[in-house]
Structures are given as structure tokens and as C-alpha cells.
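The records we work with from here on pair a chain with its fold. A complete example follows; check for yourself that the lines match position by position.
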Amino acid sequence: MTPTDYKKFGFFFNKVIRDYHGDISGEKKHVTDWDTGSADYDVKKLGLDELSMRVRVGRNLTGFNLPGAMDKDERIRFEKRMLPAFDQLIDKYGGKVHSLTPTFGDEEVNPNLISSEEYKKLVDEHVMFKDMAVDPYLNSAGISNDWPFGRGCWQSSDKMRIIWFGEEDQLRIMCLKKGSNLLEVFTNLNEMLKTVEGIDGIEFAMDENYGYVTSCPSNLGTGMRASVHVKIPKLTADGTDTKAKAVCKPLGLSVRGTGGEHTPIGADGTVDISPSARLFIKESEIIEKLYEGIEKLMAIENPTGVVNNIADKLSELSVACLSPSTSMAEKSPRSLNLAPSPVLAITAAEVSDESK
């Protein structure tokens, strides 16, 4: 695919995308807006200590195929195209480029090539992505082809800013930090994006209806995933995230393991949570929903009151969410009048008992 194929093949993509992202009107257009005004999203107000916070976006450049359609030469050409941009980022934020590309071809040496030991260390530190060649989904889409050519990352000196290149999207741009103020990583990312796109020759691919173009239609729009690691030992007392997912779904939150998708939760009950929405939602609304989601989730984990009939509400929600005949809009928490309903202020014991 190319970045313009969502429009070119709109007769197919439009209905699929709008149904998945809950646009029953069929007329929404994505709006980009990072303005959070005077909002204060410090989780210390919720009684929490510092959390592992991360906000990332997927971006692709105009003039290149999306990763699934790239061949080895184009992957190398893309990496070389990004080198001047990385030089400017290094001037501003320090750091270095870590590349997996064995050679640029024609006996051209890759000055940023790292060893297999260095790569493993970066993966273990969650700085670099894992070997894509072992992922069956990326394989089937052609995204992992030509591994490891055109793959690598840049990391700033303070370790808070990272850009992956050659993964599912051409670029995964992220900011991370252990802290309590969600706006710190959110604002840092916005600043870095402006720096990257302000570099001569860098233009992020966009669609007039779907916002920023990504390889996966589920990430269209903001391309953003804003997440934190939180401890919920009561909801994960059985050693799994099953109850956590049941509770988080009506809150509009996704739950993952601490190492990312398809990884286990922490032994202490730590999970990764993030708002599920990507398209037809503003960036500022995503970070707001993350804060509100944390607040509601912690009220469930550590309740101050008991509400009856929670089993009926969760059952109603589960049936609606799992039914194949239910539209995306009908699956939303808003349509079920669950968030921010006080019915979610339940005790961990109720969740445990009703889930047996």
C-alpha cells in the first residue's frame, strides 16, 4: 500500500474504517488538536505515586510506500533519508542512532550499525522493538520482509525520547518517563513532532478524512497510544488480566502486559492501560481519557462504596461487546450509559465473586 491508497480504494476502506471506529453517521472528519488548555493531569491527585508513562504516535512519510509494500532497497533509502533528520534531533536532544542494517549496499558502510549484543540489550531495556521476522501478523502483511534492513532507532541522551524506524509504521515516535504528570510526556511528544516535521523534506502522510495515515486502519487518525503502568493486584489476583479487561472495556481502555501486546502482566499485578480510541478523537481528548480512566479504574480497585447489580451490568456489557451483530457504536461505553456511571464504583470482591 501507499499512503494514498485509503482514498484510492475508499469504496472498500471507508465503511470498514468508519464501522470499526464507531462513526455511524459516515460523515466524520478527523481533527488534530493537542491543546489541553489549563488541564491538570497529575496522578498524585488520585493518590498514586510515580508511574511509568509513555505516549507514542505512528507516522509515515509522503513519497514512500507503507512498510508492507517496501522492498529492501526502499527500506535502506528511507533510513538514509532520515539520517539528516536524526542529526538535527541529536543537535537538540543528544543521543545516537542504533541501526540494524548490515550494509547500505555498494560497499557503503553503515556508520550506526550495532552488534547483536547491543541490539539484545536495547530490546531488554524496551528501547528497541523485537525481531519482527518472528511475528506471523507482520509476516503476512509483508511488513517484516527484508529483516533487519532499514530497521533501528534513535534515542535521546536523557532516554526520554525514542524514534523507531522500519517497524509497523515507517516511524514510531515516542516520549516516556517515570513520573506523575501525564502532560509532561504528552507535551514533550508534541514538541518533538513539531521538530521532526519542521525538518526540510519531512512531510507526514495525511488523509483528509482519516488524519495521519498508518499501516493498520485501527491506528488511523491520531496514530496515538498514551499508556501508563498501574498496579491493580485485586483485579489481577488470579494471575491474569481477564477481570481487568472486563472492567476496563466499558471505560474505553485497553489492557496489555508490561512488555506490550501479547505479554504477561507483572507479578505484582502491574498492567499497561491506554485509551482504545485513535480516530475521530483529538489528541488532547486521548490524554484526558487516560487520566479519567486511571481515576475510574483505581476507584474499582480500591472502592469506597458498594453498588448492587454489578453482575447484571457487566453481563449486559459483555454480551453487547461480543455480539457480532452489534455495531461499534453500540459497543461503546457511552451507548450503554456505563461511563462515568457510579455503577463502576464496585468492590474487588464483587468483581471476583461474579466472575467465578
